[in-house]
Structure formats: structure tokens, C-alpha cells
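Batch manifest, entry 17 of 40.
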Amino acid sequence: MSYAYRVPFIDRGAELKVLEREYGASGFSLVVVYGRRRVGKTRLLREFINQHGGVYYVASELMYPQIVQEFSRAVYDSLGYLPRGRDLVEILEELAGLGSRTVVVIDEFQYVIEAEPSLPSRLQCSIDGVLKGVGSCMCFAALQYRFREEAPWVQGASLRKENRHH
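Output type: C-alpha cells
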């Protein structure tokens, strides 16, 4: 899916370089993009998806099963692949095993965590145990700056990466 904008995309060269470097690396990568509302997080990630393809999903305030269902639909719409998993972590593990570099963007990630508070720890376990050694997948999570204060796993720079490939 391609996104068209009327306003030119400017002043994001440094951020795009980080994303391109991660895209060129092998193995699983998690890149967390956070900042205040209306500073261009979504636009940055959509521009990247426009260049490389992949799954783009924007979460909203729903119950976790609905979020998983919508995410599965976004995967199918983008890749033509219907995930079997019934959990976001399971679906990411499936995508990592597809054999090609799969880019996944989950925008407004804070809504997913609010719906399923155990997700960050389960995702970390999956990164350490499964995702780091399976195929290649690149996942982006964009979230509001205010949520960063409540999420200690997101401390660091405004473009923070967890790169767990060896």
C-alpha cells in the first residue's frame, strides 16, 4: 500500500539512515520511534513502507482480541498471507519465518500495550528466544512521547533500536 502526501517530506535524512541501516542488517530488529504528537513519526514510517513495502497497522483503543484480528487483516491486505497466530507475538514469529525481509510497523503501539499489558515482556522473551534466530523481520513501533515515561523498555533516543541479531 502506498501513501500519498501533499506536503513534501523533509528534514528526516538522519532518521531514514537509521531505518535503512537496520533494513540492510540481517536477523530481527526492533526499532522504537517515539515523540510528541504531530512531529512526524507516522509520516517517517509510512515513507519507509512506501520505499520497501511491508505491513502498516495503526492501533486504536480496542480490546486485545480485536487488535489482533485487525493486525491479522493488515498482514493479509499487505502481504496476501493470513496469519494463523491468535496473538501479536505469535504473528510476528510467523512473519519472521517467511524467509524474506518483512517490515512491520505498528503505529500507536501504546494502545496495544494498554489492551495487553504483558505484551512488552512476552515480546522481549520472543526476541531473546525465537525472533533473534528466525529469518529476518524488522519491526517498528511508534508511540506517543508521554507513554515513554510509563514504559521503561523504551528509554533512550527518539529513534531507539533493539537489534538482537548475531
